[in-house]
Amino acid sequence: MHQLTDPPATKVALAPEATLRTRRLLLEPLKAEHAPFLYENLRDERLYRFIPQYPPDSLRALERRYLMLSSRRSPDGREAWLNFALRMRQSALSAPSYVGTLQATVLPDRVAYIAYTMFVSFQRQGYATEGCVRLIEHLIGDYRARVVVAEMDTRNVASIALAEALGFERVGTTIGADHFKCSVSDEHRYELSVRE
Question: Is the pLDDT of residue 171 over 80?
Answer without folding.
Answer: yes
